[in-house]
Amino acid sequence: MSLEVRDLRVTYGTGAAAVPAVRGVDLSLAAGQKLGVAGESGCGKSTLALALLRLLPASARLSGEILLDGEDVLTMKWGRLRAVRWAGASIVFQGAMHSLNAVRRIGDQVAEPLLVHGRATPAAARRRAGELLEHVGLPAARAAAYPHELSGGQRQRVMIAMALACDPKLIVADEPTTALDVMIQAQILRLIEGLVTEQSISLLMISHDLAVLADTCDRLAVMYAGRVVEEGPARQVFEAAAHPYGRALSSAFPRIGDPASRRAPRGLPGDPPDPAGLPGGCAFHPRCPVVVESCAERDQQLREAGPGHRAACVHVGSVS
Ligand SMILES: Nc1ncnc2c1ncn2[C@@H]1O[C@H](COP(=O)(O)OP(=O)(O)OP(=O)(O)O)[C@@H](O)[C@H]1O
């Protein structure tokens, strides 16, 4: 399934209290491709993920287009949207403990999407839940367990099994490994990568960790203050970012499986701006190591930084 996001804007609340969380995002994900979206906490990643399936709270106002195989999610009728959720596109959230129902057996929870969408009889759904659990590396007998009886990694596997239940064409994974330790994180990433590749599922994976995304995805988009400031081929963005924020993110985390890169994180000075009071010009300029005078006045559009690689920085196309 292809995903095309055009000029997506999401604002929480209205008037003086309005929070512009996503400010004109364009993204493109071809069928079967893996796109990573990176950025620090608060840059609008989760808002973007939730918007894709119209799962935002009522206080959020949206505009733009979200095209799934050309069909706009934002104008879809409710019945169609219901069908698209799970079967078309499904979502894996961070922190499986909060997303799973603590008082229901995991097998029943994995079977639930199949029953809700009328895809299987209760007996067939139970059988399928066992198969799905095995598919994500858990014994089918674990279907009888409750979430608290599983480890964090096992719970995240259950979430992935649930996401796969209705044979989605697109999976949106929002920080799927953040709460896990590094070894388990690597296993879960390999699992997601293997499953989506094997079943030609498109993947949109969100993380604050650019290294995780570079290991898993074909392309990367870097978000800052509600906008995409860089996008391009994953290795290129990770190893030779064109935007100073992309460069800062790529040096902030060690790479999984690469002990040589386990240096101390080189954090950025300061914090990301509050979306309710963004600085003028380029929103990154107060933290930027290569800021020039005009950055405080003018924001930059994405422009060519290499083949299939774009960045929104005044230096792109001039000094590196
Ligand atoms: N329901 C809401 N009402 C008002 N503001 C919100 C709401 N949800 C998120 N925000 C604000 O929107 C901005 C973007 O938040 P979002 O959760 O999308 O960022 P994020 O990059 O996913 O961060 P994190 O990784 O911490 O979840 C933040 O400033 C956040 O405080």
TrEMBL record:
Membrane topology type: Peripheral membrane protein
Q: Which SMART domains match?
A: AAA
Q: Where is the signal peptide?
A: none
PROSITE patterns for this protein: ABC_TRANSPORTER_1 (PS00211), ABC_TRANSPORTER_2 (PS50893)
Task: List each copy of the ABC transporter domain by range.
Answer: 3-250
Question: What Pfam families would the database entry show?
Answer: ABC_tran, oligo_HPY
Q: Where in the cell is it found?
A: Cell membrane
Q: What is its main location?
A: membrane
The UniProt annotation puts the region (Disordered) at 260-279
Q: Which CDD domains match?
A: ABC_NikE_OppD_transporters
Q: Which GO terms describe its molecular function?
A: ATP binding
| Keywords recorded for this protein, A-Z | ATP-binding, Cell membrane, Membrane, Nucleotide-binding, Transport
NCBIfam families recorded: oligo_HPY
Q: Which family does it belong to?
A: Belongs to the ABC transporter superfamily.
Protein name per the record? ABC transporter ATP-binding protein
